């Protein structure tokens, strides 16, 4: 790999706090790159994860990185944080070549990352997590109270309403993410990588996070922001780089581009509309719920017809998930009736629900939907073993037939029915979770946050799957706290507030603000 | 994920074949190791490759194999059963007491076997209803059941079992020791259960991801009951056979066998993280362990060294197995 002097100007000193924001918006080439990648290449056995990536991060900029799952974003982060070693190419820090061979070296330079999954210790306090590895001690004994005090001071100064003495696992995932961000920000961070930071955050938490990001930006910290949410990129970032199949496709100035262009870069195929739904006329009622009450929700009535998507929108804790879980038999209910096909059903347990044709696809596919270390065939057949067996003995030919049918019907990209589920990409794992119920003959599908953490291309595939289900006469309930999604998909939208349906709208009858207002309670 | 990775039947069949071959290779290497040790011992000692010693080997290996098969069910669900040795001890004394009380053999065996479902249900109850980790639950019964056996016998050895019962384990059938046939009686249904029935599939599902299994309509509770009852019943059966083999009922019989059974299952390819393991595995594992101790005896190796060698071998075999596994990805 030849190392030639780059076209950009080089200075020996990075820009310090305060100076960074000034000359932004001009030609990015005239700003000092704090970190520069030249022909960065990473190969694993069997895959070529990054191909000759040339990318520069200017001092003090907010630089977004987008790309489908598997485009190489995680590999890039891992190289930048010293977790992986590059196969070839150069990394320059302030124009000087850098080995970046250990995570510690990255930390010493002030390179920090907040990962999508919180990598902290759930059984330690917030303060202990913030000081993990840099604990304060006197004569070898930890200074617990001093650390809690200091952590609280940091959290307060960042505007996070979080208790420093609380155990981390008593916080929501969103709050834990904020702790992780505060931890990175408090450690003399100069280069902060945020990987899908808002995936699990509520709106208020997202706002807190954005405030922090802007503040760090004002202090001259370079921020790499990875997200699938276009509106966040256009709200925050100055430049955006698109990765596809391990290659850098383009780096664009955010002010000069638009979501369509970025999506085209990402998927290399034009997508007319990301929120895609075919018009399918709803048919006869499939599920009718009347006056359902239980812990967390009361007196909820709704109907799902064949070919209809019913959206349940509400803030976290509004009762939409509790209600849906009660329909699926996972939570108790104290009153109310349910009818499937007009006939009363008494769902008291998950097997009851499945027998009635009601299934739930959990939010966390990896953790709740799949047997990851077992093969694709096993996962596709799991709910249907009864149908696939005779006298208790599983008929292997049936098992294989059913798996192969779903693999070809749903276009599941796998090395074969014998491949372990964990070798598949997120979107294909989602397809398995759906496919196993198609085998089983379920009719009412409850999706809990169906597109959390999936990329644009997979999202489209999932929406196409919805259309496929609807065409087959199924009914769908979508639970989401991401309004644009339910807004565009749902034929009927129920807004939950404090355990009750606060409002019901037909497709696109009102605007986002009205719906949000109902959910919040204005 | 690009469209180019979508493939159909042909390469899938190839992958499957490769995985099958790898699985086959693993049992083959264990088998190979076993044969290697056998050949070496045949040359090194005069007494190894004799009918008497091979029968002896089969008899001792049989008892470990039976409890290891039961243990494998538990391990595949991601659990562990530390009580099997204690159940062996308890059931060997119970069967001896019942036989001494002049119960017919079939009745005594039947009543003693009932210890299995009783203990297994108790384990499952503690794990499911009281939320105790399997390790703790079965650690408690390991101590408790051993105490129960000592209490029943007052620490004494129970003698005076009918000769037909004692002779059973010394007889042969079709030229092979009866104890070997007892292993067959356990292994064949166990193999069918784990690899060919719905229940077996659920055992793997629970071991891989209990939550996913539950959301797919699998009754985790029934699966947990099934595996702990299977394990304890195998142990009770092994206890009865042990009583027959040594001719007396001693409450301390089977001490440390829980670790032998876990070692046999793990050597046979089971993973303590669950969802990995198969029935031929523990069989090979227990034969290997028996061969090592038998061979060491014949070679006059210091018994203290035997333990050290066994420990080292467990580490090496499981390490090699994991290397092979990670190489597959």
From TrEMBL, chain A:
The record, for SUPFAM superfamilies, names:
P-loop containing nucleoside triphosphate hydrolases
Q: What topology does the record note for this protein and the membrane? A: Peripheral membrane protein
Q: Which UniProt keywords apply?
A: ATP-binding, Cell membrane, Membrane, Nucleotide-binding, Repeat, Sugar transport, Translocase, Transport
Protein name as annotated: Ribose transport system ATP-binding protein
The organism's taxonomy opens as: Bacteria, Pseudomonadati, Pseudomonadota, Alphaproteobacteria, Hyphomicrobiales
Q: Where is this region: Disordered?
A: 1-31
Write down the species.
Bauldia litoralis
Show the CDD domains listed in the entry.
ABC_Carb_Monos_I (cd03216), ABC_Carb_Monos_II (cd03215)
The similarity annotation says: Belongs to the ABC transporter superfamily.
Q: Where is the ABC transporter domain?
A: 35-270, 281-522
InterPro entries, alphabetized:
AAA+_ATPase, ABC_carbohydrate_import_ATPase, ABC_transporter-like_ATP-bd, ABC_transporter-like_CS, P-loop_NTPase
Q: Which GO terms describe its cellular component?
A: plasma membrane
UniProt main location, coarse: membrane
One Pfam family for this entry, by name? ABC_tran
What SMART domains has UniProt attached to this entry? AAA
Automatic annotation (TrEMBL), chain B:
Predominantly, its location class is: membrane
Q: Name one GO molecular function term.
A: transmembrane transporter activity
For this UniProt record, the keywords arranged alphabetically read as follows: Cell membrane, Membrane, Transmembrane, Transmembrane helix
- Which positions, given as ranges, span the membrane? 24-45, 57-76, 106-128, 134-152, 173-194, 225-250, 262-284, 304-320
UniProt membrane topology term = Multi-pass membrane protein
Is Manganese one of the keywords UniProt gives this record?
Answer: no
Please state what the protein is called.
Ribose transport system permease protein
Q: Which organism is it from?
A: Bauldia litoralis
């Amino acid at each position: 790999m030849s190392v030639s002097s780059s076209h950009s100007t080089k200075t020996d000193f990075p820009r310090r706090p305060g100076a960074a924001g000034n000359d932004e918006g001009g030609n990015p080439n005239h700003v000092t790159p704090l970190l520069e990648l030249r022909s960065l290449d990473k190969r694993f056995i069997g895959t070529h994860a990054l191909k000759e990536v040339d990318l520069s991060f200017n001092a003090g900029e907010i630089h977004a990185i987008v790309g489908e799952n598997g485009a190489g974003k995680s590999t890039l982060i891992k190289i930048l944080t010293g977790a992986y070693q590059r196969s070839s190419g150069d990394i320059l820090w302030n124009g000087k070549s850098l080995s970046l061979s250990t995570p510690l070296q990255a930390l010493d330079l002030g390179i920090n990352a907040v990962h999508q999954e919180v990598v902290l210790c759930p059984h330690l306090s917030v303060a202990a997590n913030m000081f993990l590895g840099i604990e304060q001690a006197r004569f070898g004994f930890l200074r617990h109270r001093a650390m809690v005090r200091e952590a609280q001071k940091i959290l307060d100064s960042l505007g996070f309403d979080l208790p420093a003495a609380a155990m981390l696992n008593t916080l929501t995932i969103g709050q834990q993410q904020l702790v992780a961000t505060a931890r990175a920000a408090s450690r003399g961070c100069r280069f902060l990588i945020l990987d899908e930071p808002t995936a699990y955050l509520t709106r208020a938490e997202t706002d807190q996070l954005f405030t922090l990001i802007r503040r760090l930006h004002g202090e001259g910290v370079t921020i790499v922001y990875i997200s699938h949410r276009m509106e966040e990129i256009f709200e925050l970032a100055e430049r955006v780089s698109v990765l596809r199949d391990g290659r850098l496709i383009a780096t664009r100035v955010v002010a000069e581009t638009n979501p369509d262009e970025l999506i085209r870069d990402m998927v290399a195929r034009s997508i007319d509309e990301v929120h895609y739904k075919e018009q399918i006329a709803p048919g006869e009622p499939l599920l009718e719920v009347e006056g359902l009450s239980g812990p967390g929700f009361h007196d909820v009535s709704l109907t799902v017809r064949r070919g209809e998507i019913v959206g349940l929108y509400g803030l976290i804790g509004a009762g939409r998930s509790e209600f849906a879980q009660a329909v699926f038999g996972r939570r108790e209910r104290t009153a109310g009736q349910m009818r499937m096909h007009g006939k009363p059903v008494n769902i008291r347990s998950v097997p009851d629900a499945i027998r009635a044709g009601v299934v739930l696809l959990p939010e966390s596919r990896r953790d709740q939907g799949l047997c990851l270390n077992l093969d694709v065939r096993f996962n596709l057949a799991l709910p249907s073993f009864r149908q696939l067996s005779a006298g208790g003995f599983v008929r292997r030919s049936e098992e294989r037939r059913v798996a192969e049918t779903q693999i070809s019907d749903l276009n599941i990209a796998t090395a074969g029915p014998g491949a372990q589920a964990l070798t598949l990409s997120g979107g294909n794992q989602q397809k398995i979770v759906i496919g196993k119920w198609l085998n089983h003959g379920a009719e009412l599908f409850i999706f809990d946050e169906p597109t959390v953490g999936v990329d644009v291309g997979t999202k489209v595939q999932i929406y196409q799957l919805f259309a496929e289900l609807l065409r087959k006469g199924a009914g769908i309930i979508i639970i989401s706290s991401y309004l644009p999604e339910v807004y565009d998909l749902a034929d009927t939208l129920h807004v939950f507030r404090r355990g009750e349906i606060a409002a019901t709208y037909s497709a696109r009858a009102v605007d986002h603000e009205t719906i949000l207002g109902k959910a919040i309670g204005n | 994920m690009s469209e180019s990775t979508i493939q159909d039947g042909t390469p899938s069949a190839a992958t499957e074949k490769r995985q099958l071959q790898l699985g086959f290779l693993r049992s083959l290497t264990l088998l190979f190791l076993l044969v290697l040790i056998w050949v070496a011992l045949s040359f090194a000692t005069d007494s190894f490759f004799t009918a008497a010693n091979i029968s002896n080997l089969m008899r001792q290996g049989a008892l470990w194999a039976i409890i290891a098969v039961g243990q494998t069910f538990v391990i595949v669900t991601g659990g562990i059963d530390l009580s099997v040795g204690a159940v062996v001890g308890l059931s060997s004394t119970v069967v001896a007491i019942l036989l001494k009380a002049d119960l017919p053999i079939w009745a005594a065996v039947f009543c003693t076997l009932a210890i299995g479902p009783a203990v297994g249900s108790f384990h499952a109850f503690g794990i499911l209803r009281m939320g105790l980790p399997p390790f703790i639950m079965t650690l408690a019964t390991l101590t408790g059941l051993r105490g129960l056996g000592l209490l029943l016998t007052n620490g004494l050895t129970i003698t005076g079992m009918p000769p037909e019962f004692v002779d059973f384990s010394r007889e042969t059938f079709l030229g092979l020791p009866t104890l070997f046939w007892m292993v067959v009686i356990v292994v064949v249904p166990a193999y069918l259960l784990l690899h060919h029935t719905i229940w077996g599939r659920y055992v793997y599902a629970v071991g891989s991801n209990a939550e996913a299994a539950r959301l797919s309509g699998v009754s985790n509770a029934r699966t947990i009951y099934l595996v702990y009852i299977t394990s304890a019943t195998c142990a009770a059966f092994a206890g009865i056979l042990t009583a027959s083999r040594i001719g007396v009922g001693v409450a301390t019989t089977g001490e440390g066998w829980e670790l032998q059974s876990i070692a046999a299952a793990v050597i046979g390819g089971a993973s303590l993280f669950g969802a990995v393991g198969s029935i031929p595995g523990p069989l090979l594992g227990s034969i290997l362990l028996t061969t090592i101790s038998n061979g060491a005896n014949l070679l006059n190796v210091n018994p203290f060294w035997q333990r050290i060698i066994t420990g080292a071998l467990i580490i090496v075999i499981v390490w090699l197995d994991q290397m092979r596994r990670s190489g597959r990805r």
